Automatic annotation (TrEMBL):
UniProt source species: Streptomyces roseochromogenus subsp. oscitans DS 12.976
Keyword DNA-binding (UniProt): yes
DNA bind region: 42-61
Superkingdom to which the source organism belongs: Bacteria
Domain HTH tetR-type: 20-79
Entry's Gene Ontology molecular function annotations: DNA-binding transcription factor activity; transcription cis-regulatory region binding
Protein name: TetR family transcriptional regulator
Length: 215
């Protein structure tokens, strides 16, 4: 009788190391140039800064929308990682919140905010997953500081996200990179105002994530 043969396991194809490095260089270059010049910067300029050919850019990202989405997702993922590091700390809860706020500002997420609302589909599953992850982790970081009695109770996640974005965005008419040296100084002023006990009552109500997403 013929015996059945077990099919050989299919070899998993992994991208070559240089291909992975090229993709990372493209995303890094795109992030820098989007911050400096906005989402309409020519793709060939991005390729030049990344040190790759135009064909390599299009092989990784078939259109501008795919590249912008990857940049925004990567920034949110790095922001989420900063929140995870803050949650892993076992010391002062408010100090962990401070470190997270400064780290998230360094990602320049404020410069990417207009892209989320105007450049591509806000409901793309990759974007939604990254956004939900970072929002959940920020809530945890703030919740821990609030439970420790160190964060004023009338501040929501939306409040923090809006203010960090506004403070890390340079004023109109000023050099984008020159304004960076003021960002952390002004963020610390914000953080001092978030400490409990609060010295005054805030007008209105805490801003929620749902309100931020409302059209």
């Amino acid at each position: 009788m013929p015996t059945a043969t077990t099919p050989a396991p299919r070899k998993v194809t992994r991208p070559r190391a240089d291909a992975v490095r090229n993709r990372e260089r493209i995303v890094t270059a795109a992030r820098e140039m989007f911050v400096e010049h906005g989402p309409d910067v020519p793709l060939d300029e991005i390729a030049r800064r990344a040190g790759v050919g135009n064909a390599t850019v299009y092989r990784n990202f078939p259109d501008r929308e795919a590249l912008v989405r990857e940049v925004v997702c990567s920034v949110m993922d790095r922001t989420a990682e900063a929140a995870e590091l803050a949650l892993a700390e076992t010391g002062d809860a408010f100090a962990a919140l401070e470190r997270f706020v400064h780290a998230s500002a360094d990602e320049r997420i404020s410069a990417l905010c207009p892209m989320i609302s105007s450049t591509f589909d806000q409901h793309h599953p990759d974007l939604q997953a990254s956004r939900e992850r970072v929002e959940r982790l920020i809530e945890e970081v703030m919740g821990r500081a609030r439970a420790a009695g160190q964060l004023r109770p009338d501040v929501g996640v939306g409040d923090l996200m809006i203010v960090v974005a506004q403070l890390s965005r340079p004023p109109a008419g000023t050099d984008c990179l020159r304004g960076d040296r003021f960002v952390h100084r002004h963020l610390q002023l914000l953080l001092d105002g978030l400490r409990a006990p609060a010295r005054s009552a805030l007008p209105g109500e805490a801003v929620t994530i749902k309100e931020l997403r409302a059209p």
